[in-house]
Design goal:
- The protein has a single domain, classed as Methylamine Dehydrogenase, Chain H.
- Helices cover about 0% and strands about 45% of the residues.
- The protein is built from no helices and 29 strands.
- The strands form seven sheets. It has a five-stranded antiparallel beta sheet with strand order 20-23-24-25-26, with no helix packed on it. Strands 1-2-3-4 form a four-stranded antiparallel beta sheet, with no helix packed on it.
- A hairpin with a 5-residue loop joins strand 28 and strand 29.
- The chain starts with 12 loop residues before the first strand and ends with a strand.
Length: about 325
């Protein structure tokens, strides 16, 4: 989190739902109730309205805490996470959600959640102590797989390449971004050697909005975006072991500005959204696209705008989450 950023704030978000060829469906969400749907193709330099109408069906979450993370598994199963040690799960397409707290972690802010099935999921708690939990029984029990109470630790996001390999990103410590890797399915997490960690510029950090400042693709590629006076995008081709940096066009020479969320739908083409969280309505420097794997970025116009959104890899299933326990299901209309 960049210097001066507010820990409780959750800036703009996005996710791409890959469709076919070079096309993708793009969703924008942020700290309100406005959701924007667009289609983006690799050859375009702007966002076009999606031809299929979308509606959002609000569902009862059973909680009023602010929800930060969400993962759609399939058309029936999804998970969400948020403040006060809270996690949620549905196994019936959102007709009913079960909200509960991780025992012994009732004060933890779970900003990111990753799930593999209706039974198996991981939760990430951000600040000291930074913690990662795993369940294999649908949330009935949780085991702590990572614990770090070092001064200044602040995890921003984590992601799995597959069921064995994962990477997590944290704000700079001693001048370099913290990078954790796992090669045993998240059972253990180890920091990469200090000299291999990306060096941070003055005031630079990542936004722990809901785990989407970090994106992975395939078996080894990863990217994360930063904020601060000189925001950047970092890329790795070896599961987070080494990193290269590129300038981001989303900065405004402010600690409150930069990239909030990014995603790649193939090794070359990606999109990033962000801006200035202290000037949320402004569309100025709020989105950019890359066509060279994140080595360079071109600004594009877009609206600014729930906290997090996720779509399943199996079938068309999507949910968004936000403040006060809000959960909404994405429904594609036929008309």
């Amino acid at each position: 989190m960049p210097a001066g950023a507010e820990p409780g704030y959750n800036p703009a978000m996005s996710l791409i739902r890959y469709k076919s060829g070079t096309s993708a469906a793009l969703f924008f969400v942020a700290g309100g109730l406005i959701i924007f749907l667009a289609s983006l193709s690799a050859g375009q330099n702007s966002l076009q309205s999606h031809p299929r109408p979308v509606t959002w069906r609000v569902q009862s979450s059973g909680t009023r805490v602010s929800l930060r993370g969400v993962t759609a598994v399939d058309v029936q199963a999804a998970w969400a996470s948020g403040a006060e040690g809270t996690f949620l799960r549905t196994t019936d397409g959102g007709a009913s959600w079960t909200a509960a707290k991780v025992p012994g972690a009732e004060t933890v802010d779970f900003r990111d959640i990753e799930a593999f099935s209706a039974d198996t999921a991981f939760l990430m708690g951000i600040a000291s102590p930074a913690r990662i939990f795993k369940t294999e029984d649908g949330g009935k029990t949780w085991t702590e797989r990572y614990h770090n109470d070092a001064e200044g630790i602040f995890l921003d996001a984590f992601a799995f390449f597959d069921e064995k390999n994962a990477v997590a990103i944290g704000d700079p410590m001693d001048g370099r971004f913290l990078v954790l890797v796992s090669a045993d399915g998240g059972l253990s997490w180890a920091p990469i050697p200090f000299p291999d960690r990306p060096e941070a510029l003055a005031g630079e950090g990542a936004f722990a909005a809901s785990g989407t400042c970090l994106a992975v693709l395939g078996t080894s590629e990863a990217w994360f975006c930063s904020g601060g006076p000189s925001p950047r995008v970092f890329r790795s081709a070896d599961r987070g072991r080494t990193w290269q940096a590129a300038a981001s066009p989303l900065g405004a020479d402010k600690a409150s500005a930069g990239g909030f969320s990014l995603l790649f739908w193939n090794p070359q083409h990606g999109v990033m959204v962000g801006g200035d969280y202290k000037d949320e309505p402004s569309p100025f420097k709020s989105a950019a696209v890359s066509r060279d794997g994140g080595r360079s970025w071109t600004p594009i116009p877009c609206p600014s705008g729930l906290h997090s959104i996720s779509f399943s890899k199996k079938g068309w299933a999507g949910w968004a989450v936000g403040r006060d326990g809000l959960i909404a299901q994405c429904v594609l209309r036929a008309d």
